[in-house]
Each structure stands twice: as structure tokens, then as C-alpha cells.
């Protein structure tokens, strides 16, 4: 298996080309903060520091004010204790170097020694308070940031969720919450290191002003090295992120239950393993390159630090020899230099870490701004109480294209469609795959807004209506309705998630769709968990799921029921039952928008709309449409009937406009 390094080109490894159609190169839109971060100078970083700390503090205040106070005060006390300890050590050394008997000198040094010990003890206690405060704060900050992320995401329009650029921002911003957690740690470390550095620098400046620039000089090479290495790591992470995801995808696929039969019967296992190794070897080569590079940089930094340290000690010797400085003061200077150098290195490292995380936090902030712009509007005109019809007026709709993908084109799903859906009737939408049926139903449900034309609810533009009220009128059973990994009961009750489950209404809905018979066969009845992989989890068949989906919509009880291929996984008897029930719903005043490929099933619909390639071709009752000589519906119906009559009658499910067999 060839790796990226073997091929030495940007064309990607053999696995990338074969499985993913090309190199999994870094997508620039994925993390827009990358460039800003990479181009930032040390000075620019320092200038942005207050803003970063302020952002983190704001989040921390929302999460737990008390814990934040604990951390802040503890770090301050710790820094002051450090400064006091240094000054005390200086006094100890000064006392010890005086002339006189050892006992006398020790006696003189005792107060300073006690002060140093006390300061160290206070520092240690403050440190432990800070650690415990951080421990309380970090998970809460992560939760607050995650909630911020999720609250914004659930409020955006469907069009945003399906927009590729917005999705990439979603992807990148999801790291914001864990970054916020780590930022608490880094911020504390920055504040701590800053206080320690100020303490050491203050002591050194008092001892002799020349020592401070020498201290800075000593830490420059190590700071440069850590900055450079972390940037190299980050650049590599962004460049290889798609590749790493793809590698994980391969390994995860091998352990999933869905593809398990094909992996075994078609012998896909060894093939996937081979490519997993190929992909892994490529990223291992990158890791090796990074490690070699980091080692070289560190070696160079160590040599430069050595030179700077030698210069510092030479300066100290010079100060001693010229009598500018006492021996005791020189001792303190050595200690303060070491402590200061340590603090400064930590400071640079943690600021660097802070910036790395702040990039992701920035993405989270941007996601929140973008989500607010693309949120479903709140409020609007009330939905008419006694609605009589919903009308599509010259509706055109295009799914957005992916701006970052040159090959992507705008997909026009509906063109100039005008149709009516009378309330209290069964209206069927038919047409070949991709003709626009589901798109019509989603526009009607208020999930999308037309790119041209209007959807009118008794003459009022749906765009002006209160969307929450509009959604409250709708119940949906789509072909790919969600299979919640919850209990059987919750899978129906979630149709009305805003209320506690109502036992009687649940039983009625389950009976309506035949889901009650499914529950009878489950080991824990209504309380059976419908998710494999959990203790007590249970899997059911596609048809059984479909009954649950229909029960959910029934339980929701919206006045307009949209059913998109409701029976594709049901057996013939169940299918007949469902259609009869759908008919009854309309008799009870509920509007049904039915999407199906089974043309015989629309016999009892009050109105049928026939779509072709996004355009409305025909409308009428079953009889009217069959009566049209060269009609599209009639042609499709004849085709299905002929297939049934001549093909031995094996019905095909949901295979395309003309393929299903009718009764
Ligand atoms: N989320 C989407 N993003 C981009 N294009 C889409 C999306 N959903 C549907 N389309 C495209 O819009 C067109 C209409 O799709 P739609 O799902 O409305 O057809 P349909 O008649 O319901 O098809 P089917 O019978 O296969 O369910 C198709 O060409 C499809 O590829």
C-alpha cells in the first residue's frame, strides 16, 4: 500500500484516490481562524490576551461565579506568597553571610526563614484551592458552551442545516466547548505565571536592573521553540483533519452492525483493513516528520538558552567582581532568575495554548452569530383558525450549492409550481424519483421557504405566519422518520415532546397503527429500549418501526398530516389497513398530504397532483387522470399494472416512479 510519502505528490495515497476519489486535502473553509492564528506575531498575541481572558471569564461567570472567585483569589494569593518567599530567602541569605558566630547568624535569619516557610505554606494552600475551584469550574464551562452551541443550532432554518458552509462551521465550532474548558485551565495558568513572573522580575529589578533583560533573553529561545512547534502541530492538524476522519470512518465501519453482513459475505473486511493500514501509514509518516522537526527546533533552542544562561551568569560574576553586588544578593539573584525564567516559559507556553484553543472558541462565537442570522423567526401573524386551503403560487425552490466546491451546482427542485391542498381532504403527490414531492411537503410544513413564489395559507403568505403555530398544525411521517434510541413508549410520545406522555392517547395511537401488537412481542413491552448495544436494548423490523412512526404522527395529532411513503416497509395487509385509516382521518376533518409510488393507493384521494422534474404536470381525481389519453399519470399507472400482470406479481417497494406494482 503506497503512502503519501511514498508517492511524494499532492495527489494523495492510493487509498485516498480509490476510496474517496482524490486527496483528502485540508478544506480552508473548515476553520477560518487558522490563518489569523498562524500569522499572529508574539506581540499581536500579547495584545489580544486581555480579550481572550475576558471571553473566558465571561463564560466562567455564567457557569459558576463562586468557583471563579475562588480560582481568581487563590491565584492572586499564590503569586503574592511567591514574591514574599523570594524576598524572605534574600533576607535569609543576607543574614547567613554576615560576620559572627553561626548561632548568631542563624538566629538573625530565623524570622526570614519563618516568613519563607509561611509564604510557601500559604502558596500551597492557595494552589490547592485553585485546583479544586478549577475542577468545579471546567465541566460547568464546557456545559454552558455546549448548551450555547446546541441552543443556537436547534433554532436555525433547515436550509442552514443543509448548507455545506454552515455545516463546516458547525463541525469546527463543536470543538469550542471543550476548548472553553481547557481555556479555563490555560487562563489560570497564564494568570498564575504572570503573577509569578512579576514577583520574580520585581525582586530582580530591585537587586540589579541589568538582570531583568538577561532573564528575558534566557527565555526567548525556549518560547520561540514552543511557539513554533505548536504552530507546526496545529497546521498539520488542520491539513490532515479530513484524512484522520476518513481513517476513523474506515475503522468504525468495520465494527458497526449495519454493514456487518456485507463485510462478511462480500469479503469487504480484509479490503478495508488493507486501506485502513494505508491511510494510517500516511498519517504516521506525517507524525514522524513533525517529531523530527520538533526535535531539531528544541535542540537549537537548548543551545541558544545555554548561551543566554552563560551570559547571565557571566554578568552576575562581573557584578560580583566589580563589587557592585554582594554574594548574598547574587545568591538570591540566581534563585530569582531561575524562578523568573520558569514563569516566563510557562507564560509563553500557556498563552500559546490559549490561542490555539481560542481559535475554536472563535468559531463557536461565529457560529452563534451566524445562527442568530439564520434562525427561524419568532412571532408573526396567527395561523387562521378555520383554514380552508393551502395554495402554492408559482413556487420555485432551489437547494443551496456548496460555495467551496467548484463542481457543485444549484439544484432547482421545483419550478413555477402552483397547486392547492384543500383542508380536510386527502391530497396525493405522485411522480418519479426526484420529481420534487418531498420538497413540496417540506415547503408546506414550513421547513423551507420558497426561493420564488409564495405558499399561501388562506391567502396569507406562510413567511408572515407565526412559525411555531404553523409547526403545531403539522404532523409528519416521512420515509426516513427518526428511529429514536429510546423506549418504545418514548418513540411514540416524542410526537408531543412538549407534554408529559398521556397514557390513554398513547394507547389509542398505537392501536391505530397496529404498533400495540409490536409492543406485545417486546420483552419489556412499552418500556423496551429500542437501541441495540445497550443492556436491555432490542431491535425491531423496518415494518414494525414504520407502525411506530405512524403512531407517533397520530399521537402528535396535527391538523395536517404529511405522510411520505408511509407503507414502503409494510406487508400487504398492513398497507391496506394504513390506507384505510388515512382515509378515515380525512373523514374526521384532518388534512392528509400523501406521497406514494403505489398508484393504486391513491385511488381514494380527493385530489392527485402529478409532478415531473420539479414541475406540476397534472392535477385531478383518480378517474379524471386515468381518463386523460396521453396523460402522465395514466402512463405510469398502466406501466405498473402491466408489470404486475406480466411480472408474476412480486411487488417491488419504493423503487421508482414506474416500478411499483399495483393491486
Ligand atoms: N437536501 C437536499 N439538498 C440538495 N438537493 C436535494 C435535497 N433534497 C432533494 N434534493 C434534490 O431535489 C430534487 C427533488 O427531490 P425530492 O426529494 O423532493 O424528490 P422526490 O420526488 O420526493 O423523490 P423520491 O421519490 O426519490 O423520494 C432531487 O433532484 C434531489 O436530488
Automatic annotation (TrEMBL):
Subcellular location, principal: membrane
Alphabetical UniProt keywords: ATP-binding, Membrane, Nucleotide-binding, Transmembrane, Transmembrane helix
Subcellular location: Cell membrane
Any one Pfam family match given in the protein's UniProt record, by short name: ABC_tran
Mode of membrane association: Multi-pass membrane protein
Coiled-coil portions: none
PROSITE patterns xref list: ABC_TM1F (PS50929), ABC_TRANSPORTER_2 (PS50893)
Classification via InterPro entries: AAA+_ATPase, ABC1_TM_dom, ABC1_TM_sf, ABC_transporter-like_ATP-bd, P-loop_NTPase, Type_1_exporter
ABC transmembrane type-1 domain residues: 79-356
Gene Ontology MF, one: ATP binding
Presence of the UniProt keyword Nucleotide-binding in the record: yes
Record-annotated membrane-spanning stretches: 76-100, 106-126, 183-204, 210-227, 299-321
Domain of life: Bacteria
Domain ABC transporter: 390-638
Keyword Acetylation appears in the UniProt entry: no
Name of this chain's protein: ABC transporter ATP-binding protein
Native organism: Streptomyces luteireticuli
Amino acid at each position: 500500500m503506497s503512502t503519501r510519502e511514498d508517492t511524494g505528490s499532492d495527489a494523495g495515497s492510493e487509498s485516498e484516490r480509490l476510496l474517496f476519489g482524490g486527496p483528502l486535502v485540508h478544506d480552508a473553509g473548515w476553520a477560518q481562524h487558522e490563518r489569523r492564528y498562524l500569522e499572529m506575531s508574539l506581540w499581536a498575541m500579547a495584545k489580544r490576551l486581555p480579550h481572550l481572558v475576558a471571553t473566558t471569564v465571561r463564560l466562567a461567570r455564567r457557569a459558576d461565579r463562586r468557583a471563579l472567585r475562588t480560582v481568581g483569589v487563590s491565584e492572586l494569593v499564590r503569586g503574592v506568597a511567591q514574591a514574599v518567599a523570594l524576598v524572605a530567602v534574600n533576607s535569609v541569605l543576607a543574614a547567613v553571610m554576615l560576620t559572627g558566630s553561626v548561632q548568631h547568624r542563624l538566629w538573625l535569619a530565623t524570622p526570614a526563614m519563618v516568613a519563607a516557610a509561611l509564604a510557601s505554606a500559604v502558596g500551597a494552600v492557595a494552589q490547592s484551592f485553585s485546583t479544586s475551584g478549577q475542577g468545579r469550574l471546567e465541566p460547568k464551562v464546557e456545559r454552558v458552551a455546549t448548551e450555547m452551541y446546541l441552543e443556537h443550532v436547534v433554532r436555525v432554518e433547515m436550509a442552514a442545516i443543509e448548507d455545506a458552509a454552515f455545516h463546516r462551521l458547525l463541525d469546527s465550532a463543536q470543538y469550542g466547548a471543550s476548548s472553553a474548558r481547557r481555556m479555563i485551565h490555560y487562563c489560570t495558568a497564564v494568570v498564575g505565571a504572570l503573577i509569578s513572573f512579576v514577583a520574580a522580575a520585581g525582586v530582580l529589578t530591585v537587586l540589579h536592573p541589568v538582570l531583568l533583560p538577561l532573564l528575558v533573553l534566557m527565555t526567548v529561545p525556549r518560547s520561540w521553540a514552543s511557539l513554533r512547534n505548536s504552530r507546526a502541530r496545529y497546521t498539520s492538524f488542520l491539513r490532515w483533519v479530513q484524512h484522520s476522519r476518513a481513517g476513523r470512518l474506515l475503522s468504525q465501519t468495520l465494527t458497526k452492525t449495519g454493514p456487518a453482513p456485507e463485510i462478511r459475505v462480500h469479503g469487504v473486511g480484509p479490503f478495508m483493513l488493507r486501506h485502513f493500514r494505508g491511510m494510517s501509514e500516511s498519517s504516521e509518516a506525517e507524525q514522524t516528520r513533525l517529531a523530527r522537526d520538533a526535535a531539531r527546533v528544541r535542540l537549537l533552542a537548548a543551545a541558544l538558552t545555554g548561551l543566554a544562561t552563560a551570559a547571565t551568569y557571566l554578568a552576575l560574576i562581573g557584578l560580583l567582581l566589580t563589587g557592585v553586588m554582594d554574594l548574598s544578593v547574587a545568591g538570591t539573584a540566581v534563585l530569582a532568575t531561575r524562578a523568573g525564567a520558569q514563569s516566563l516559559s510557562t507564560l509563553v507556553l500557556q498563552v500559546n495554548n490559549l490561542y490555539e484553543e481560542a481559535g475554536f472558541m472563535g468559531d463557536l462565537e461565529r457560529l452563534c452569530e451566524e445562527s442568530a442570522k439564520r434562525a427561524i423567526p419568532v412571532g408573526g401573524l396567527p395561523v387562521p383558525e378555520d383554514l380552508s386551503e393551502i395554495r402554492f403560487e408559482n413556487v420555485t425552490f432551489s437547494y443551496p450549492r456548496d460555495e467551496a466546491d467548484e463542481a457543485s451546482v444549484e439544484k432547482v427542485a421545483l419550478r413555477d409550481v402552483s397547486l392547492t391542498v384543500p383542508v380536510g381532504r386527502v391530497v396525493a403527490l405522485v411522480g418519479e424519483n426526484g420529481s420534487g414531492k418531498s420538497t413540496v411537503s417540506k415547503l408546506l410544513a414550513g421547513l423551507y421557504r420558497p426561493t420564488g413564489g409564495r405558499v399561501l395559507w388562506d391567502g396569507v403568505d406562510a413567511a408572515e405566519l407565526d412559525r411555531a403555530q404553523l409547526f403545531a398544525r403539522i404532523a409528519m411521517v416521512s420515509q426516513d422518520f427518526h428511529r429514536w434510541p429510546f423506549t418504545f413508549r418514548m418513540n411514540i410520545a416524542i410526537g408531543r415532546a412538549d407534554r408529559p406522555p398521556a397514557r390513554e392517547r398513547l394507547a389509542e395511537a398505537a392501536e391505530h397503527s397496529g404498533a400495540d401488537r409490536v409492543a406485545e412481542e417486546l420483552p419489556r413491552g412499552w418500556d423496551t429500549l429500542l437501541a441495540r448495544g445497550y443492556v436491555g436494548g432490542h431491535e425491531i423490523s423496518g415494518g414494525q418501526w414504520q407502525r411506530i412512526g405512524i403512531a407517533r404522527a397520530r399521537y402528535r395529532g396535527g391538523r395536517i398530516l404529511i405522510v411520505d411513503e408511509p407503507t414502503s416497509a409494510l406487508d400487504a395487509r398492513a398497507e391496506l389497513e394504513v390506507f384505510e385509516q388515512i382515509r378515515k382521518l380525512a373523514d374526521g376533518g384532518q388534512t392528509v398530504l400523501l406521497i406514494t409510488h403505489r398508484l393504486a393507493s391513491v385511488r381514494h384521494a380527493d385530489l392527485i397532483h402529478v409532478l415531473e422534474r420539479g414541475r406540476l404536470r397534472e392535477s385531478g381525481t383518480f378517474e379524471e387522470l386515468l381518463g386523460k389519453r396521453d396523460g402522465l399519470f395514466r402512463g405510469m399507472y398502466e406501466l405498473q399494472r402491466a408489470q404486475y400482470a406480466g411480472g408474476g406479481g412480486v411487488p417491488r417497494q419504493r423503487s421508482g416512479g414506474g416500478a411499483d406494482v399495483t393491486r
